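In response to a reviewer's request, we include the raw inputs and outputs for one of the modeled complexes. The two entities were modeled together in a single run.
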Amino acid sequence: MAGPGNVVVPRNFRLLEELEKGEKGLGGDGSVSYGMDDSEDLLMRSWQGTILGPPNTVHDGKIYTLKLYCDQNYPDKPPAVRFYSRINMSCVAANGVVDPRHFNILGHWRRDYSMETILLELRREMAAPHNRKLSQPPEGNY
Amino acid sequence: MGSNQQAQLPRRIIKESQRLLSEPAPGIKAVPNEDNLRYFSVEIDGPGSSPYEGGKFRLELFLPEDYPMAAPKVRFLTKIYHPNIDKLGRICLDILKDKWSPALQIRTVLLSIQALLSAPNPDDPLAENVAKHWKENEAEAVREARAWTMRWAR
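The model returned the following structure tokens for the whole complex.
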């Protein structure tokens, strides 16, 4: 579970690393991004993520906004994730919440996963055969 | 688990931890976390004759895997009005970045942070608006810092 040498990076320093990575825009290939929602919260709980809809799908060209909430148990436990932009997708409930039972990254969480992992994996899921052609609600927010 | 972790902990870290507990620097407390001996709860008393006097400031410190080749990571957990400390408690201090040397220790880092409280440096700011306040009206900025100390650090 822990990295080599069993060094466990505590929650707050892990979130600071993620914040720095997100701020520098090192998050993958620019198809996802993330940052803190409340820049004055010393506990760094509320985050906002975006996913650029993958090409050759119904999501192409759309920008989806998500809310991620990291409680005190992060990253031992996954954050709570919900879409703010309306979307029709197999792992997303009617209220926008990403259902861990239908999304493996959350359902089988590992400590070395990050918010970037979640966003990149959700983007892949958008392009999966069972999602890529699903009819979508009119653009808007939950 | 505890003893197992202790066995894997580099000797240097064990030594530093013991000395921090047996001979603490004045006004500085640093206690390793039971579940993670690289993770310290720190308390620094605001230095006398500074706007932070009378306050107790909580910080957290983590020794990354490559310590002492890499600097410790330190952050304030108590809100503080200071030009070199941002809203998230991150600290702008050269020895935590490019001036780090393995000859430095947890103790020297904490003493340097204590010194930074006595000597804010608005010319190398991390919190831009606080630094601006400091340069434009130092007396008023100092009053604000003192008010924050009373409000958050008591």
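As requested, we also summarize the result in words. The helical segments of chain A are 11-24, 104-107, 115-126. The mean pLDDT of chain A is 92.
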